Structures are given as structure tokens and as C-alpha cells.
Amino acid sequence: MDLFEYQGKQLFGAGGIPVARSTMVHPQGPDPLEVVGALGLPLVVKAQVLTGGRGKAGGVRVARTRDDLTRDVAEIMAMTIRGKRVVGVLLEEAVDIDRELYLALAVDRAAKRPLLLFSVRGGVDIEAVARDEPQALVRQHIDPLAGLHDTQIAELVAWAGFAGGLAEQFAALVGGLWRLFCAHDATLVEINPLVVTRGGRLIALDAKVTLDGNAAFRHPEWAAYETDADERERRAAEAGINYVSLDGDIGVLGNGAGMVMSTLDLIAEAGGAAANFLDVGGGAREARIAAALDLILADARVRALCVTIFGGITRCDEVAHALVNVLSAKGAAGAGLPVVVRLDGNGAAEGRDIVAQAALPGVQTAATVWQAVQAAVAAAAGAGAADGPGAPDGPGTAGT
Fold it and tell me: Which candidate among 11, 104, 280, 343 keeps its CA 20 to 30 Å from the CA of 189?
């Protein structure tokens, strides 16, 4: 469960992590000009949206006058960034920055333990820093039973070159971030940038927090966050479907996380971009398949649909029945949406027959995942299914 920046900063403030003074403004209020009296000018106007790239999209601006503030708030509130609707803006006091740092705690799934990350290169794409300047990023694994040790914090303080009061602030902040990470069952807590002001203070200027949804039973207070969740993701959770909205235009439906993730990779390899991750799980019956299709087809960005099922406890003929029924109910195969279907395994022959006999406009079958991906990418691009059945397999798809 991803939190908005303002929600993350509420957790930070309650946990003793220093943040700039700010006020959240929704379309229903308060009036942005009322905030000027409390926080003054200039104010940083920050889009609240569950995606990255806000700054590049024009979703973060500095308003120096009241007229600038009124204009910027109105324009940002009307934005959609990477397919995500802006729910409001955070008005934050401007800070006089001397240095920008990066600090995060995450779950390292390969090592099966928390990972502390720190860099003096904050405010930039941390993935680029890790790739191009690995020496600029410190990584420290934390024993999940012993917790974050004082010696680890001391090593981090020394590496950052902090001394005196700044060293004390940093040590306290790192310790507080660890306690917040544990207490709230987080899988990621990231501050980018963590700034040192010209007055010698440390302030978290951003807050990216991801909570482990599997721990929701321990946190009834999380119910307040659900109202801001992506509507399709909320509906998917209620239907028992694993769904995540992405930035592309190719809908993806598969069974098994590995199957879906490899399909997303192949779509990227073929030059396309997926609109979603959707795993219907094992043993999905017709009702769940139909619900999954409804979720994908409700996304106006989707220009083609790639369905790839390997039948085991999930029967391909049931998938085909659901596919035909939903597309037929929507009329003309989902209003002309190109659909590419790859079925293999249990009930595959029957499923392919069902799809063929329905003869729905724009719906075709493919023999392999790679062929299905190629056809879907071509269809989404408006080029048609240039690579139909019989095209050579792509890398890593032999036998799939």
C-alpha cells in the first residue's frame, strides 16, 4: 500500500522525523490563500499523486506571489500524471537548502532482511546513482532480530562527514526512521531529498512510504488510507485479484506472478509498455476472469489486450468462456479493442476452439507468449498484428 507524500509526512511528524511546515489542500478546501497567512511566501506547490515523475510533469512548482499560488494550485489539481489523478496539493514552506542527501529503509527480499541505504547524492534518480556511481551509495543490511545497531548509525554518521549538532540530528533521524519502519510494517521508507539547511537543520523534504498490505489486520488505522487508493486496485483487491496500474497502453491478463512479470518484460523488449500488472491467480474460475477483464477494459488508456494463460488448476476453456462473454457483452469485442490470446496447458485446445468459434472482431490467438506480445504491441501502435502465429520465438520464450 503506497501512501501519498502528505500521509507519509504525517507519519514522519508523529515519529519525530523533522519535516517542513505544510498544509494539504483538496478541491473541497481549504482556500490556498488562507495558507499564506500561516506559512508565508514563497510556497512549494506539490501534486499529491501515487506515481513518480511529478517534477518533470510540472507537478511541483514554487509560488512566489499570491497570484502564482492561485494559478499553480488550480493547474496542478487538474493534472493527471502517468495515468494517475492528482487528489490535491501539498503547500509547503520553502526551505533554504545547503545540501541534498538520500536516506531509505527497504526490504531486501534476496537477503531476507531490511536494508539501509544512504547517499550524499540526494534529489536525483537514485537508480542512476546506484548504476553510475555505486561508491556514492552506502548499503547496510540490518539483522531483523537484533535491529539497527548504534555502531551502524555511527558508521553512517562518519561516512557522511557529520560532526557536532548535525551528527546528533542525523543519528536521531536514522534511529527514528528505523522505529517507524518497524512499527508501521513498512516495506519502504524513503526520503529524497533529505536536506541540510543553511541554518544547519536536517529536514525530510519528501516522503515515500509503502506499507505491507499483508499486515493490515494489525493496523485498523490504515482504513483511512484506502479511500485514496487507485479505484481499480481497490476493486481488484475486493475480487481477490492481484492488480497494479502501470503507465502503458497494453492491458495484460495472466495467471501467476512470474508469468505476468515475464510478459511485462517481453512487452518492453518488443517496444511496448504495459498498462497494468494483473494476476488472476491459480484456479481462477469464470467469475474472477470476467472481473479481471472488466478491470482492464475500464482503463481508457488500454489500446490492446494481451491474455496469456498456462492452464494447470486454471482451465483455459473457462478463461476462453469468460473472455468471449465479457467482450460480447461490451459489444464488438470491447468496442473494437484488439485482443491477443495465448492459451496453453489444461483445456487449451478447447479454449482455442471457443475463441475461434466466437469469431469476435479484433480477437486473435497466438501460439507462444512472444507471438502474443508482438501482436499486442503492434496492435497498440496501430500497425496491426504484423507478427502472427508462425513468427519465430523471441529470446527466452522457446517452449512457453
Answer: 280
Residue 225 catalytic?
Answer: no
Residue 331 Ramachandran class (φ > 0 left, ψ -120 to 50 alpha, else beta): left
- Which residue, among 375, 378, 358, 372, has the nearest Cα to 400 in the 3D structure? 372
- Per-block average pLDDT, block size 10, for the chain (400 residues)? 94 96 89 92 95 89 96 94 87 95 95 95 79 87 95 94 95 97 97 96 96 92 70 73 88 93 96 94 79 86 94 89 85 70 95 93 93 96 49 41
CA distance 374 to 105: 38
Q: Give me the helices (H) in the chain, please.
A: 5-14, 32-39, 66-77, 126-132, 150-160, 164-183, 223-226, 231-238, 257-269, 286-297, 316-330, 332-336, 348-358, 369-380
The fold for domain 97-220 equals D-amino Acid Aminotransferase; Chain A, domain 1 (3.30.470)
Q: How distant, in Å, are the alpha carbons of 118, 136, 196, 271, 330 from that of 160?
A: 9, 10, 12, 41, 59
Looking at the domain covering 21-93, what would its CATH class be?
A: alpha beta
Active-site residue (options: 5, 92, 190, 318): 190
Was domain 233-380 assigned CATH 3.40.50.261?
yes
Domain extents in the chain: 21-93, 97-220, 233-380
Query: Of 6, 102, 233, 318, which one is the catalytic site residue?
Result: 102
Active site residue 34: no
